[in-house]
Design goal:
86% of the residues lie in helices and 0% in strands. The protein contains three helices and no strands. The longest helix has 37 residues.
């Protein structure tokens, strides 16, 4: 248990940040799920629209430190590759 005032404040800050990050991570997963579902259904237009919405959301999460930059880039790249193969 935190004893010093600074340690108590740190635990409060960590709790706030954890809540925000959890919300952001959940939001990104929702966007990714929409893309996955559209790809699985074979719906090109819906997949493209979902991907267009998911890409900035992923990069925003990366810039905020929720995901590593490379992880976000990798996810975007793989989704774009699958979208491209669906269109071909």
């Amino acid at each position: 248990m935190a004893n010093t005032p600074s340690a108590k404040k740190a635990t409060r800050k960590i709790a706030r940040r954890t809540a925000v990050n959890k919300n952001r991570r959940s939001r990104v997963r929702t966007f990714l799920r929409k893309v996955e579902e559209a790809l699985a259904a074979g719906d090109k237009d819906a997949a493209q629209a979902a991907f267009t919405a998911a890409q900035p959301e992923l990069m925003r999460a990366a810039s905020k430190g929720v995901f590593h930059r490379n992880t976000a880039s990798r996810k975007v790249s793989r989704l774009a590759q699958r979208l491209k193969s669906l269109n071909a």
